[in-house]
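Support request from a user on the community tier.

User writes: "When I paste my structure tokens into the form, the page sometimes reloads and wipes my input. The last time it worked, I copied everything first. Here is what I submitted, just in case something in the input itself triggers the reload:"
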């Protein structure tokens, strides 16, 4: 054997031994709380599972996690937690939260071996979470003026709520974060901003705090009840939707100058709709909003485009889901100009099964928007693209939604199933009618938009 060959053999033998040693060490290293599990939990679970947040129990200490180790492994394996219905193989978004297969396996191994602590001095430090916020320290907190009573009648409640304020001077809002008072019952919130001209409204605080929606009362009368109109009876300025909340949703924070709102000295947050789930016992809510100011004035407002129900595009065939059937619907829109998409929000109710949206460009490319393989009514995120997504003029946005109105759907509100139709203005929001919607927040395209990163933090 030549020396050269021998050397090669030697190198190979050393290499193989190294691999084997690595393998045995890795094999032997048990998954413990301190070496693996704490990090996973702090990143993927604790943001919601801590004091004052939506998760129903804390996942902060070793004991919090170890006493539930089997349950954590189970919800991880079944992809129930962390809630993230979007298919991350289809699109990646800013602030996405899911567990990789490797992480799921670690949680399982850990639970199986009795949830060992490991070296307690090596537990990574708990990340700093702001109190009462997912974002940071707000510049202003606006709380509902009164406590809203929620009687124990087992019925959904939809309210119109006014949260008035007066501040020292006009300013700009960079981000608004909803903080539910009653975390179990608040299902969703859709809010607008009222901007009073200073002289046109003497007292912004008068009037009722809330009115029941969908009672047949005309909107104008509801507005009078909450004392929304200017003193001369005219309407104040009302922005488009500026805050949307669903459990677990993080508000998007756009780059400076994008999606900023003027906040006048006198004004109010108008919750056009706050939806409370049913409760068997009398309870109440007093929710609040964290407001984060912006130094820069608004340069580029963000708009909403709604496809499907209440939107600009027709649903084909019309949204009727016959009892006992699984049926797919489609809606499409052709873009006349280039747009820059920031977020997409798919919306269906309890019969939802799958959801798919993409754009087909004139050049024949497919741009992925969102794919949900297993619809979950409880988690309807505003999926924020990591970078602003340009869709060129002439593209067709296609949206497909499949609804399951069989008894195999555990969320079916009727047994036996009943034919379910698209809700009208009054019942659109109730969970026993259906909706098929894609809400796209966007701006007219400007050169360079596709290089702008968007995130869920101020950094
Ligand atoms: C976006 C917020 C959020 C995140 C992130 C999150 N959870 Fe949850 N979790 C909740 C809420 C809210 C509930 C209450 C049940 C519900 O509404 O489905 C819950 C319930 C649970 C339950 C009880 C499930 C049941 O069926 O009763 C477990 C176990 C759990 N979470 C574990 C985890 C683990 C483990 C992680 C991280 C891998 C995690 N959660 C991440 C919000 C969250």
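"...and here is what came back when it finally went through:"
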């Amino acid at each position: 054997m030549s020396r050269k060959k021998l050397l090669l053999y030697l190198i190979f033998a050393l290499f193989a031994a190294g691999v084997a040693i690595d393998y045995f060490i890795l094999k032997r290293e048990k998954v413990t709380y301190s070496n693996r599990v704490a990090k996973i939990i702090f990143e993927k679970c604790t943001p919601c599972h801590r004091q004052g947040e939506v998760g129903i129990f804390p996942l902060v200490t070793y004991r919090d996690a170890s006493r539930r180790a089997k349950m954590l492994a189970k919800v991880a394996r079944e992809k129930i937690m962390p809630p993230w219905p979007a298919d991350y193989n289809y699109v990646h978004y800013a602030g996405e939260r899911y567990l990789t297969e490797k992480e799921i396996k670690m949680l399982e191994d850990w639970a199986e071996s009795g949830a060992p602590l490991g070296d307690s001095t090596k537990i990574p430090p708990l990340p700093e979470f702001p109190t009462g916020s997912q974002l940071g320290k707000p510049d202003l907190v606006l709380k509902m003026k009164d406590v809203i009573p929620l009687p124990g009648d087992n019925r959904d409640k939809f309210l119109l709520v006014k949260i008035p304020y007066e501040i020292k001077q006009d300013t700009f809002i960079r981000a608004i974060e909803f903080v539910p008072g009653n975390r179990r019952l608040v299902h969703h919130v859709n809010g607008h901003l009222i901007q009073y001209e200073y002289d046109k409204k003497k007292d912004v605080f008068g009037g009722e705090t809330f009115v029941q929606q969908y009672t047949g009362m005309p909107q104008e009368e509801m507005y009078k009840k909450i004392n929304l109109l200017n003193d001369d009876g005219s309407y104040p300025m009302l922005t488009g939707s500026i805050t949307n909340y669903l459990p677990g949703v993080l508000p998007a924070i756009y780059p400076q100058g994008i999606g900023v709102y003027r906040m006048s000295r006198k004004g109010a947050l108008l919750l056009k709709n706050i939806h409370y789930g049913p409760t068997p016992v009398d309870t109440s809510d007093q929710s609040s909003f964290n407001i984060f100011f912006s130094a820069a004035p608004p340069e580029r407002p963000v708009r909403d485009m709604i496809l499907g129900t209440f939107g600009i595009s027709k649903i084909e065939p019309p949204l009727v889901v016959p009892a006992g059937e699984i049926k797919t619907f489609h809606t499409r829109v052709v873009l006349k100009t280039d747009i820059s998409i920031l977020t997409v929000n798919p919306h269906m109710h309890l019969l939802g099964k799958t959801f798919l949206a993409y754009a087909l460009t004139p050049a024949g490319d497919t741009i992925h928007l969102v794919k949900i393989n297993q619809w979950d009514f409880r988690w309807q995120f505003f999926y924020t693209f990591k970078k602003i997504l340009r869709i060129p003029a002439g593209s067709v946005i296609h949206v497909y939604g499949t609804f399951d109105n069989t008894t195999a759907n555990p969320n079916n509100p009727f047994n036996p199933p009943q034919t379910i139709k698209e809700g009208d203005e009054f019942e659109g929001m109730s969970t026993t009618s259906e909706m098929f919607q894609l809400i796209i927040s966007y701006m007219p395209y400007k050169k360079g938009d596709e290089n702008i990163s968007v995130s869920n933090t101020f950094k």
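Agent notes: The reload is a front-end session timeout and is unrelated to the input. Residues 3-28 form the longest helix (26 residues). Residues 44-45, 47-49, 54-56, 71-72, 75-76, 81-83, 97, 99, 247-248, 378 surround heme C (CB under 6 Å). Escalated to web team.
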